[in-house]
Amino acid sequence: MGAVLENNAIFLTISNGKICKKVPKKTAISVERVNKNGATVNEEFYKGWKGQITAIEVREHKEFGKFWNITLKDDDGEAILQMNYSSGYSAAFLKTLPNIDLSSDVVITPNLKMEGDKKKTTVFVTQHGQPIKWYYTKDNMNGLPELKKIRVKGKDTWDDSDIMEFLEKMVDTEIVPKLNKGARKSSTGGAFDVEDIDPEDTEKDDLPF
Questions:
Q1: N or C: which end of the chain has fewer CB within 10 A?
Q2: Quick check: 131 pLDDT over 60?
Q3: Is the pLDDT at 106 greater than 90, yes or no?
Q4: Which CATH architecture has domain 10-179?
């Protein structure tokens, strides 16, 4: 009858510069911790994840906001990598998309480093053994809006709303039509493990480049 009763895709997040996969029980490489809800969870951590990009979706949680879900497919099945809608991780990934061959596998490798007391987050994307360069750069913006400085409660802060809206539209119009399957949606459905996301790992960077 065509019904699908279970989604067997692996669900991934990014934590402290690593790909994080929650597992139902201890494994040889898993790490145990207690999340902020008081539940004990087991997680495996990986330097990166390889697969062909087959879908990109924006999912919205009524409490925690919007997230990007990137589906990566390999010979073993599918994995859904979740990134905060506005973060160093997602911005870096989205800026590489126009330069990616969507018919071939990519390797997505997150990175976190400290600059003073601030975390700087990004991802590196490689394909065919070569790094994929950003399509949108400081020297060649290709229409990408500039980061805005706004004042909130008496303090200056950077606002990337225009940038993320531009990148979301780019995904809609330029990337989704090229994907092998699926379509990007804005939705309140889908998988969420937001209680296990470290807010500091998904915070906005101070600068766009």
A1: N
A2: yes
A3: yes
A4: Beta Barrel (2.40)
Nearest to 193 by CA among 18, 21, 19, 17: 21
Predicted local distance difference test score (pLDDT) of residue 206: 37
Largest CA distance in the chain: 59
* pTM higher than the cut 0.85: no
Residues 10, 23: contact at Cβ < 8 Å? Answer: no
Are the beta carbons of 13 and 84 closer than 8 angstroms? Answer: no
* Strand partners of residue 50: 107
185-205: average pLDDT: 45
Burial of 111 (0-12, 13-18, 19+ CB in 10 A): middle
pLDDT at res. 88: 93
For helices 161-170 and 88-96, angle between their N-to-C axes, nearest 10 degrees:
40
| DSSP summary character for residue 24 | S
Q: Residues 177, 179, 183, 186: is their CA dihedral positive or negative?
A: negative
Residue 98: exposure state from Cβ atoms within 10 A (0-12, 13-18, ≥19)? middle
Find out whether 126 and 109 touch, Cβ atoms under 8 Å: yes
Among the listed residues 98, 72, 58, the one whose alpha carbon sits nearest the alpha carbon of residue 187: 58
CB 60 within 8 A of CB 66: yes
